[in-house]
Amino acid sequence: MATRDIIVIGASAGGVQALSTLVADLSPNLPAAVFIVLHVSANAPSLLPVILARECSLDVAQVSDGEPIQRGRVYVAPPDQHLIIEDGHARLVHGPKENLHRPSIDTLFRSAARWGGTRVIGVILTGARDDGKVGMRAVQQRGGLTIVQDPLEATFSSMPMSVLQDIRVDYSLPLREIAPLLNTLSCEVADEEGRFSVPDEVELESRIAEQKMESAELIASVEQLGRVSFEKRAREAEKHGEEALFKRDPRAKGYLRSQTGYRLFEQRDKLCELLTTDVRKNRDWLFESLEYPLAGGPKRG
What we know:
By secondary structure, the chain is of the alpha/beta class. It has 2 domains: 6-195, Methylesterase CheB, C-terminal domain (Rossmann fold, 3-Layer(aba) Sandwich); 213-289, no CATH class. It is 38% helix and 17% strand. It has 11 helices and 12 strands. It has helices at 15-24, 48-55, 105-116, 133-141, 158-166, 175-185, 200-209, 215-240, 268-274, 277-280, 283-289; strands at 6-11, 33-38, 59-62, 67-68, 73-76, 82-86, 89-93, 120-124, 145-149, 171-173, 255-257, 263-265. The strands form 3 sheets. A 7-stranded parallel sheet has the order 3-5-2-1-8-9-10, sandwiched between helices. A 3-stranded antiparallel sheet has the order 4-7-6. α4 (133-141) links the parallel β8 and β9 (145-149).
């Protein structure tokens, strides 16, 4: 029977110390593979694997593209590459940034949820902004377990708080209590995966991140993702009596997917009329962040 043998961990500001503390308490016999994304500079090698290896009783290494996943190992995402879990292997892709980051926590968590389902345990630690929120939602939708560091003790509370504001997590704990819990949960039998289907948005986002699509399929997927996102947001707005982030406009047929994670209408001038007040204030910044001009495909670098 399947156990909870896939642990994905995301951290940002304040994350080196938090990760060092967490991995130091992981059991040397941990029956799970651990995957870590920390937001780091793209312009220099990461020392995180070396730092964590000093504290951890498990093997710690930077991921190599295509290597098979093994239990009892810690896999660290390298700079400027998204880490993806796919068919029992770890993959690295230089896809578009998400939430202004590459590697992105959302990208890792979403791929883990898609492939691992109920076997996944997601952990969000200290960090600014909200990378990881969407990924943790995907983990929960697929029947995985969700854990956040207590925002009151996190060096930067924004990331764990953003998750707590979005979903009802399974555990919110002080940092020192997370590793002992992982040691226990990783030995438990996972629920039947068939009970938790892959949401359309998770499937589409995962396939886009894999960077395997031809141009026509990529454009069609981005357009479909825009429709899925709009319909979901519209339902939420109707439920809560709020204005939708995007209003449907028949002239805006195409969508742009930005590195910030927003799905934007192709018609930039019309976009200003469609966004709510809060987002409209930042429209120039959003336009500068666009990384998916539909005519040219994704930019590299």
